[in-house]
User: Fold these one by one.
Assistant:
Number 1:
Amino acid sequence: MTTTTASTPGSYYRFKPWNVGRLLVWSLFALLLIVAPLLFTSSLALTMLSQIGYLIIICLSYNMLLGQGGMLSFGHAVYTGLGSFIAIHAMNLAGKGALPIPLVFIPLVGGLAGMLFAVLLGYVTTKKAGTTFAMITLGIGELVASMALMFPEFFGGEGGITTDRVYGGSFFGITFGPAIQVYYLIAVYCFICTAAMFAFTGTPLGRILNAVRDNPERVEFIGYNTQRVRYFAFIIAGFFAGIGGGLAAINFEIITAVDSVSILRSGGYLLFTFLGGATFFFGPIIGAVLLVFASVLLSELTKAWLLYLGLVFLFMVMYAPGGVASLIMMNLRVAKYGKLRALLPSYLGLAGTGLVAMLGAACMVEMTYHLQLNAALGPEMSFLGATLNAKALASWFGSGFVLLTGLGLFELCRREYVRQWGRIQEEIEHEIKRGEAL
Amino acid sequence: MLNGVSYGLLLFMLSSGLTLIFSMMGVLNFAHTSFYMLGAYFAYTLSGLVGFWPALVIAPLLVGAMGALFERYSLRRVHKFGHVPELLVTFGLSYLVLEVVQLVWGRSTVPYGLPEQLQGPLFTLFNTQFPKSRSFIMLVALLMLLSVWLLLTRTRIGLVIQAALKHPQMTEALGHNVPRVFMLVFGGGCALAGLAGVIGGNTYVTEPAMAASVGSIIFVVVVVGGMGSLAGAFLASLLIGVVQTFAVAIDESLASGLQALGVMVSEETFGWPVLKLTVSQVAPILPYLFLVLILIFRPKGLLGTRED
């Protein structure tokens, strides 16, 4: 599932002994990780980059279950959260001098903890697949989340547990005090873990995991125990989830049980991994970036962000179940055959009319939220620079009109686009067939 | 005991709809408790307009209609992608419903009270009063169980539903509209959840968090009872209701138990944080522990026949 081109032999040339294309992509990824904090220097940007860094690990580890194993887990936060807690306790112990672990290896401690819990809990969870698996992970997630509140000694109760990451002596001037040093630690882990997880997709276990997802019955026939395959994958995913959790603990220096092992958090990972695209390896990376942008910027911008998020998610599942990544790959395929140019006008049309419709809808949603939450401030509110009166009929009528016009034009554009898209796909199929015949 | 039974029966009303939908369509409706919440809120608004008793009928019908619409326009479209996207779409819906409910009715508890006829105790037993509202829940749940069972086994619609469940293609060939049957079943399941919301909402509290509070417990009920088994769901929900109600009332811990047996236990003993927990503190996690135990010893559930 890593590259779509691999499925069409003949169109894919493998450079030997070096796979140049792959080398290029990975060096670009590494370069991006190194350069990003130099381009965006504000402290907000740096925090966001750090969060993106460890969320990439977490989302990728989640996708190992969802995308590669077909296991829909509702309890991924259990492994990241417990990883964070063990990591933070290890840091506190190391700070007291009881445990000689340098900070660089703390995420590994978190990873091992995540793995341990995955070994324990995964045995029960992976007994089933499919829908039952989802329900069991939900139950386990709730179990751990409510247990975390029962042991305030370990989980710190409501207030959580704090730590200080600057406990070791400085090593070539690196103390991990400044956020930039922590970012680079996270970036290095992010790169290594991404590479390791990508390598995992090519191992026999990774391949048979794909087979278990697609057809468990046949896998049983060729002599594999599907339950054990799922179990191993679950353990490995737990390990990487724990690393992500450990990095989160280092980044924030505080962990609360209410937040970090909660079902809500698991739901967030699920949502964004899916939005990013579960069918491609790089999809969760997009998902992680989206997650940070949504939770940091969008939640600043509007109070209705959860509503928008739910709507986007619903439409994504209905119309593009492969997530953002699949949209990108589909258009790349069109571009490869040099047909993207023909689609550009209709893309512009779609985007323009869609924006108009969204503007109308957003106006109405924002006015409703304003009425509900800020009733004391009066009916006047500002939205995108314009002042709206949430109680006046005119502004409701206006935004309704904008919404309907946008929707109507969007529908017209969409029909044209669907026709064009179908024609281009046919042409591409035709060309592939001709290429095979030659 | 009776409190436990009435709570268990409420759980059953919820899980029966879920089980029905699951056994029919193989869809795990994640938004089921959202429909429960919608039922409670609709009933709250309607009982202000037309009174409680008409609301008892209208609210579930409204919720059922919404469920059917959702099935028709969203779930059916996703059906061809497989089970996981179906689950995801209901998961997204649960987010959406929560936000919309908070938008319309606000974020705090709404004063959805009991009607005149259901206030006050029904009878007094050993100095504890048993409220009428609880007995009303039990009555409605039992009536519902009976009617669902009769509907499924004794009527023509029920037979078509059962046929569509076992051999959808054959049923279609015989001239029944299977997708519409599915839509009706989904709507019916949601209506049951709505009904549970109407009578559960005023006995307990009506607030935006009510969906999440029972959400994962009814999934436990469905797994423990055996996937897709209505009788199993009945048994499991009673069991969990009773166990949880009892556990909340017991203020004993392992430590005090051991002390009663003559074992010296103090704060220095290994594992004190575990020992000092009282049973009532552990109560919230009992259903989940139960789930894990069932999965280890009887993976197909109490009365389940399906193994997948």
Number 2:
Amino acid sequence: MTHLLSFASHFYLFAAILYVIYLVKSHPRIAQVGRLSLAVGFTLQTVLIVRSFLGYGYTPISNLAEGLSFLGWLLVGGFLIVERFYHLPIIGTFITPLVVGVLLPAVLLRDEQGHVANAIKIPGMPVHIFIAFAGIAAFALATGVSVAYLLMERQVKGKKFGVLFSRLPSLEVLDELSDKLMRWGFVALSITMISGSIFAHRAWGDYWRWDPKLTLSLVGWLVYAALVHARLFAGWRGRRAAFLTMVGFVILFGSFVGLRLFPTGLHGGDFQ
Amino acid sequence: MVAPTNPRVYSLVGLSHKTAPVEVRERLAVASGELPQLLSQLKAQDGVEEAMLVSTCNRVEAYVYGGAEGAESVKRCLAQRGGPGAENSLYTRSGGEALTHLFRVCCSLDSMILGEPQILGQVKDSFAGAQEAASIAGAMTQAAQAAFATAKRVRTETSIGSSPVSMASAAVELARKIFGGLDGRTVLLVGAGAMSELCAKHLSEGTSRILVVNRTLERAQNLALEVGGIAHPWEKLTDLLAEADIVVSSTAAQRPVLTVSMIHSVLKQRHYRPLFLVDLAVPRDIEPGVDKLENVYAYDVDDLQHVVDQGRSAREQEAKRAEAIVAEEVERFLRARQVRDAVPVLALLRNRAEEIARLEVEKTLSLFGEEELTPKQRKSIEAMGKAIVNKLLHFPTVKLRDAGKAGAEQAAQVAGVVAELFDLHESDKPNPPAAAKPNGAAKAGEPERRPAPEPAAAAAGRNELEPS
């Protein structure tokens, strides 16, 4: 990774500060500048990723730092898309700090050069990894929206109104958006699980192994499967759904970060 | 004789909820039918050149423009109309204070409910009424428009108007925060009280469906007719709860009609869709504890009042910023007027002089036959008329400009003297040549009338010259 990444993350940091200010002082111009700053950072990072892909022939997700920054890139892209269709800049207040939180360790760790794992050279593997990341990004966005929902819901229910009450959109809009993002994440995660098991069959001879990372991913998938089901058939929505969205994300993120930091299993930091 | 200057000022005489009880306010209140007559009565008062009357349920205020004595005469007029008790409640403001008051009223800073949005429309109506009755001209129009612009600025730059001011609007605000748009929602009215009707009107929007249920079906049908809803018998209450998004309850029942178990039983049927319950009844219709249920939001009158109170303190915060905007805009308006004050007198003076020169030249030329003067000679006579005007007005022009630069007081003083000496009126400004003549006629009457009201309303004499 190059200094381009820290350059891009400065734009993200600036945007995050603007979006937090936007929460307090709701002036549309602030959010506009924030969005612009995100877009600039996103463009820089896109250049970085494309260059890495063309120059070194691999998607830069071979170690934790690269993975995190790739996740940040997807989060920003996802937010920009959501913002494009929903015009809810206030969501940025919840997403951009997350982006900074993901990018910060990536920038700090970037010198630790991870060797390019052999696994990533398997044809089709980058797609598997990309979809897995996209799924996590979608869940992260859904979680951000769910946090907003829970804060808002608490104010409406408790009849105590703070700044958020006047700024946030209605409960229904938040719930619907969280649901939509969660479903996209679920589709991506399902594809990841299936493609993963195909790769596993080739590499290890089994479709499934009780590796910690895989197990956690499966638990996360089950949580979301239950949530999709409950939303569709049992009319689950609102608080319960928001909580489950968060729980599922914590599990998946744990399997992503935790097991890269402490690689113990087969499918971990080194992609062996 | 006449005081050297008689600068014209804005004045305000009126009473409001702050100074007068409703009995007094309603005696003084002006129905729209009698507005034109009262406006012309006000305008006929000594020292009043322009008059505008704002009459709402919370205030009756006359804004006038003219001599300083105008306020006194308007006060007498209003006190007479309001009867006993009115006189002590009337307040008078003049100059910048009167303008500040007008601006504050428009910005809803003087309202009983701070920041309530209706008042601006009411003042605009008053302004339109005064325009229709031709009781206002340039000065009051400028002031009113500046006040409206200030109100608009306050609306956009502060959030004084964004928090709910009444229980009904609080309920609407909450519903919006739960559902987003209210379009297409189902509103269920339980009980057919007046409050239900009011709330239903606020909450229904576009394609929303209104269901009415009441112990006596007939009253439900009446209310349904009133609000464009569908009436249902009381027995169907539980079924209707499964359909509704918003429930407004205001029965006279002594015990809760919407119990926890009742709501709980429909939750599943509703697929846990959010349910917003508004309880306007005392004793309450909704059993406490209902709001513990998932995706159910229940508000009783106290809760709504609390929302309104919170909104009030938010508005009070914003009011401080609004006051600063008002002060700034009044200041700006007064400064703009200072410059205008000196310049129109100059324009009027020039207008008057050129008019006289033109008439005299015409008169002179008409003494000669068509053949007697060559075109060159005619041109010379016309040029001479203009030259005399220019030479004569050179020093007054310079002096007036200097006074305008020197400051408000001096400008007003000099301008006042000039206006007085040459009998200039702002209403002379549009210059159809005919307008000069009635003025001249009035001038003839002046010497007889002037000495009579010597000490009492000396300056008021000016007003009698009003050409209209």
Number 3:
Amino acid sequence: MEERGRLSIQNIIGRITHGLIGMDIFLSEKTNNAYLKDFLTLKEDEIKQAFLSASAQKRLIPPYETKLSDEENSFLNCVKKAQELVVRIDKVKSDKEIEVCLNDLGTKMDVIYATLPER
Amino acid sequence: MSFDAVLDGLVSVENHIKKAPLEVPYSFERESLEKVKEIFLKWLEIYKMYTKGYRLELLPRTSRHVIRMLSAFTSDLENQVRDVFEARILNEAYLLVDDFLEMFTKSLPRSFVLAEFKEFKQTSIGMLLQDKLENLTVPRPSTGTASVDIIVRDIKNTDILIICYDRGQFDNVLSWPLLLHEAFHYFYETQRLDRLAKDCPKVSWLEEALIDMYVVNYFGPAYALSLATYLQKFPHEKTVSHPSFASRIFIALKYLEKMQEQKKLPLPSSEHVADVFNYLKKVWDEHKESDPLEVQNQVSKIYDIAEKDVKELIFEKTQPFSNFLVETEKRRREVHEKAGFEFAENQVLSVSDVIEYFSAGVPAAADPRIVFNSFISKRYQEMINDRRISIFIKESLKKWHLKNAWLKAKALASK
């Protein structure tokens, strides 16, 4: 994963963390919030792009091409599921559903941190 | 870990930035580093605002994740500071890049720093910050986005170009021409040079191919040799953003081939160009099979279409390398003919002079293009790891910078 991609991933981490914060706040306040809006701005293509980072420019040689690993694909699915839940969060009847989603996404984030490369 | 610990970490990075050494010999280099310091401190301020904002939220389930994110951001910023302030490249590399930017971007605001990284690339602090914070709104309890927006705008207004070099090459002076490829990206972008390439095949890697063309036409065979030597270590296939390794060698080969056809280069440069050509041809022959014929044809077409524009643009700023070399010889003869008491400071050095100076162990105050292109022959290709060449080039750049500074000061004093 290259520098530009790494920064994009950190940006993605930022927006997912906002998703986690947003759900946490929702559980206590029961109102939609700006953090959740941030989380919903994250698009599937952005995540793929950041992991592949194939379009990086302004470097002498291109970054090595990589493929989305199984882990990254499962991360992508987890984010998509969480976003689906956030879209209908006002209508979710049980807090349990939000808590499960929050835990799953949090666990995935731990894996992403562990796989972030050294500079 | 708590939010307070994150804030402590930010303060410690802040102190690290404030204490970062600025003991560098060249004033323009020191000014750029001072600007970078200020920008990094502003960037840190944004992180402090984020941290304080998050700290006010009630987050029973997720504070651990937020703290982790902030720690990762802080540690990344600290690494970026290190890349710049602990860069091991010799200060004289700044002279080469500054001369190049002065030539091409005279009227543009430009500050740059060299940073040690894992590869050659170009970026700016504004771009790095944008990549990080784009779409990430300020934490809810913060006083609003205005204060962060002001700092971000401030950073963008005083943005600094960061030219990164491959840390494995930090002491390889002969790889410095590759820094010019990165510096040229800035010029390409600010001058919107893609407008000149409108008739070229619409390939996604056009910018990279054209930049190789511009730099080789400006800096001559020394760039071709640095590029080929580096690419041989790190060969790559065609990607979305870059033509293949073989295609890039092919671009440089086309340039050298045309240069040889012109038969106007003075000796010994004409022989040296043949040596570089042979080296590149050997590398290309070994790898050309990896390049589809279609790509080779596209590269060839791009070269033929863009060559005139490339040369014209270089003529607007200076001279393409082959013209420059011929002109240097001419000026050298003229100065020799009317050598007076001011001979030493008006002296024009050619490739053969530089080689002679090198043999005598005396640095030569010659133009960087002449200095670098004095070490491209087969003989010097075999001495690539000889530290005497690095020391000579470094000292020559210093001497040349000093000579120019003296001439400028003298011209100012006489006004």
